[in-house]
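Troubleshooting: if your tokenizer reports a length mismatch, compare your output against this known-good record of 209 residues.
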Amino acid sequence: MNTSHKIASYLLSTKAVKLSPEQPFKWSSGWNSPIYCDNRVTLSYPEARTFIKKSLAKAIKKYFPDTELIAGVATAGIPQGALVAEALGLPFAYVRPKPKEHGMGNQIEGRIEKGQKVVVIEDLISTGGSSLKAVDALREAGIEVVGMVAIFTYGFKIADTNFAEKNVPLVTLSNYNALIDEAIKQNYISAESLESLKKWRRKPEKWGV
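Known-good structure output:
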């Protein structure tokens, strides 16, 4: 089993992913969705957590070997980023959605230096909007963002467009297609549910409206 399918299997077995075409979830974007992914759940399972940590570290070594700093996107990217930074022996920082409204008013927490080459860690990519806001904050602080590594992506075209426009290379460990493959293998979904998931994947903004 390759990495993408192995991680998809972990997401299903730990119930980090919930598939519910009959009773869809509502995303913060307003989209109705037959799928909800919360990769933070995998942190409670040592075997899954370790495999994901090692896979993230391996991806960084392969695609971004000059990385000097790991930055997690708050909140879900913080624990994953800290685990990976520890595995690689690199400094760690994290990025808030917006500056604190008290104290030092920091948006970036941790010791950073201008010119450092950073890889951003994210748990999940949907449209890429919130993840790329973290990239903007790092760049404004003088940090060189060499890329982003995430556990899972839905593979929406809008995300590809957004990352291309920001010139941010994106590497993901697993994806929607691998997840569906594993869900079928494990008899996790019915043929009817599969068709509904395919329709959602094609036009998520209009699905269930």
